[in-house]
Amino acid sequence: VVPVYTMEELxxxxxxxxxxxxxxxxxxxxxxxxxxxxxxxxxHLGGLPPATTRVVTIGAPTAVAAQGSGLRVDLVASAPTxxxxxxxxxxxxxxxxAQPCPTHPTRGPx
Length: 110
Description:
By secondary structure, the protein is α/β, with parallel strands linked by helices. It contains four helices and three strands, in the order H-E-H-E-H-E-H.
């Protein structure tokens, strides 16, 4: 077995300076949750966000974990892809009204 990634437990002191105050004070318009484990860690370290912070998940399993952690999920991306997540964020920020996600030109070789 080869681990692809690991989750390391954080303590509040490991968070960027001012994060908890900005999080609790509504300093973030939207949060995108990508996994149940990181969702639970966010709630454990930062608490629940205010109602003004929109919550988007990349799929149903993450939405279930978010709801189980006490979060209100505003939107679930239609697929775990950058365009689908971007569209969900745009839609969440627009108050649930569907809007297209801005497109970006494809990057060439580096």
